[in-house]
UniProtKB/TrEMBL annotation, chain A:
Membrane topology: Peripheral membrane protein
GO CC list: ATP-binding cassette (ABC) transporter complex, substrate-binding subunit-containing
Function: Involved in beta-(1-->2)glucan export. Transmembrane domains (TMD) form a pore in the inner membrane and the ATP-binding domain (NBD) is responsible for energy generation.
The keyword Cell membrane is assigned to this record: no
Keyword vocabulary terms for this entry: ATP-binding, Nucleotide-binding, Transport
The protein, known as: Glycerol-3-phosphate ABC transporter ATP-binding protein
Single GO molecular function: ABC-type transporter activity
Listed Pfam families: ABC_tran, TOBE_2
TrEMBL record, chain B:
Family, similarity comment: Belongs to the binding-protein-dependent transport system permease family.
An annotated GO BP: transmembrane transport
Subcellular location, record wording: Cell membrane
Coiled-coil positions: none
Protein name listed in UniProt: Sugar ABC transporter permease
Amino acid sequence: MASISIRNLTKRYGNFTVIPDLNLEIADHEFVVFVGPSGCGKSTLLRIIAGLEPISGGDLYIGDKRVNGVQAAQRDIAMVFQDYALYPHMRVYDNMSFALELRGTPKAEIDARVKRAAALLHIEPYLDRKPKELSGGQRQRVAMGRAIVRNPKAFLFDEPLSNLDAKLRGQVRAEIKALSQQLKTTMVFVTHDQIEAMTMADRIVVLQSGAIQQYDTPETVYERPANQFVAGFIGSPAMNFFAVEWHDDCAILSQGGTAVPVDGETASSLRRAGNALLGIRPEHFTVATNAADGIAIEVKLVEPLGSDTLIHFDLAGISAIARIDPSLRPKVGDRLALRPQPGKTHLFDATNGQVLR
Amino acid sequence: MNDAANTDRWIRWLNTVQLVLAGIIIMAPTVWMVLSSFKPSFEVTAYPPTLVFTPTLENYAELTKTTPFLSYALNSLIVTVGSTSLGLLFGIPAAFAVSWTRITWPAILTLAARMAPGTLFLLPWYVMFRQIGMIGSYTALILSHAVITLPIVIWVLLPSFDAIPRSVFEAAQVDGCSVTRILWRIAMPLVASGVAVSAILAFVFSWNYFLFALVLSNGDTKTLIAAAFNFIGEGSTQWGALMAAATLIALPPLVLAALVQRWLVSGLTLGAVKG
């Protein structure tokens, strides 16, 4: 078990810089999730920690040891791959015992550790099977078992749930989280799925173009996004953004001039900035009973989800979404008045996207 | 529906005709060789060729009487097994290294060497081996035949190694394997059928290779195929004995190929489709 420290790390492929200058501290026992769109450098960063990619500049520490030039084999890190990467010619038992065997662990201890991990992951009946005789979910568990038996300094997960169907993904996600609480080991998990990030992480690293946009707890990343990118990336459906101005002591939409009811904090920030981007999550709209208290919209599309209903509408030239109570039973063409919930709006600098407080 | 069934039937029929024609073209010389080896010597060159004849073993008797056939066969075996082993010893790690590093020029270089006419190597080798007193040695023959076996091993195994997902190797690295260990513990078991196929192909090509053995061997190390050349004399070729020798020479590769034909096809197409 160990902390991971990344200092001024750069990664280049020829003239192409994937990670320009990255600093990150992952505490011992912490479950950190790297999240970001495709090509943001999250998998590269994970592979650098694993020792599968060389570092172009900067330093990487695992525990107190600088591991820049240390081979993957010597880092004492376990990794679960997206395609599980099980050894096809070995039985499940041998897949799990292989790393211990390489380290010269006594046979009795190997056996005990494999059986303990198999029990933990409910894969005991499959120990004599080859990977091709297992389902996707079972293979996923074996891949985790292979990592667990080693008792490594840290676990790395590279999008391990992306090959599973939706139901199984949810189940394994919960299992990994439970496992992390049981094992109390440093875990780094890469995903492009923000639900995985939100539900599993102690802290989330939101990456874009190889740079950390925000590194904080899931609650903070959701409630207080550092910039427009994070605000738009975390949350599903994504946050709506409207260009707004401060005009005649009132917040108005830049296009159309409709007044937007905002809380005091947002109003004072907008007053200082003059104009900005107003961010409102779909779930933070309320349907106003009195039309004068909200923004008038016309429902363009209705998506009933059971627990909620999503309504699509156009506002100030923007296609926006609101999540509303399904008992309202909205229909296409209905005219509603939406009101942002007080304290739930976000204001971003119109030029650089940074949050305005 | 009926049209589709008719078209299918026609395609199947055309395929069969094509295969039969190809089989006849490929097999005719072999059948002619085998039949001729059992004909009395005066009938071998008869024109038109006789299809009905009384089979005789006189050509085989002549062959064993006039030549140390078993000794030549042993020479062939030593050279073939030696060069196949050498090809595997260097070809397996070479193919793995090319697949691992994605640096393909060494493999292309070996292929170019294989494509080049044998005579290109013959003179330099003859001079080199003569200067170090190795003309007529098994070592010279085995080393020269490695030019045949090495590219075969590399090029048959390359797609097999390429077909193994990269992440399997990376998982082994993270598990604590060195590159050498990854080759022996992870990659080798996964390409075992490819190794067998490359070994068989290397064996067959080396066994059948004529030119190097003709020039670099001596009376003690002459291989079967070079010895068979002795039956072709100026004006008086012993066709019957030559056919008997050719039949016996062709036997081991044919038997080998027949025994493992299913494996051979799957091994050769390995890596073509990832599954």
